[in-house]
């Protein structure tokens, strides 16, 4: 991998809109793989992609193939008219 493809802690922080301290904590905790090169940590594109994939939210499956965060309406709810 070419050195130009690596990102600095600052670049990753800016990209993800978080503080540099947060990125360094992820590295220290082993959540984000990085390489210690000379003056600081460098993060490879594959490592950043893996980190983002691992931290992505997963939608919960519902009985009808999609996601539904709204509460189910009961028969009584459906028959009520609008409130005044």
The residue-averaged pLDDT reads: 82
Work out the radius of gyration: 22 Å
Shape: elongated
Helix/strand/pairing category: alpha+beta
Low-confidence regions: none
Structural topology:
Elements: E1 7-8, H1 9-16, H2 20-28, E2 35-37, E3 40-43, H3 45-54, H4 75-79
Antiparallel strand pairs: 1-3, 2-3
Helix pairs in contact: 1-2
Detailed description of the structure:
It is a single chain. The chain is α+β, with helices and mostly antiparallel strands. The protein has a domain of 56 residues: Multidrug-efflux Transporter Regulator, Chain: A, Domain 2 (Orthogonal Bundle). The protein has 4 helices and 3 strands, in the order E-H-H-E-E-H-H. The N and C termini lie far apart (65 Å).
Keywords:
alpha+beta; 3 strands; three-stranded antiparallel beta sheet; 38% helix; 84 residues; elongated; Multidrug-efflux Transporter Regulator, Chain: A, Domain 2
Short description:
With 84 residues, the protein is an alpha+beta fold.
């Amino acid at each position: 991998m070419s050195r130009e493809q690596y990102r600095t802690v600052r670049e990753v922080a800016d990209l993800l809109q978080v503080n540099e301290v947060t990125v360094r904590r992820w590295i220290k905790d082993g959540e984000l793989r990085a390489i210690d090169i000379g003056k600081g940590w460098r993060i490879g594109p594959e490592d950043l992609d893996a980190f983002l994939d691992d931290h992505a939210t997963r939608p919960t499956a519902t009985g009808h193939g999609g996601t539904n965060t709204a509460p189910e309406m009961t028969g009584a709810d459906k028959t009520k008219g609008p409130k005044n």
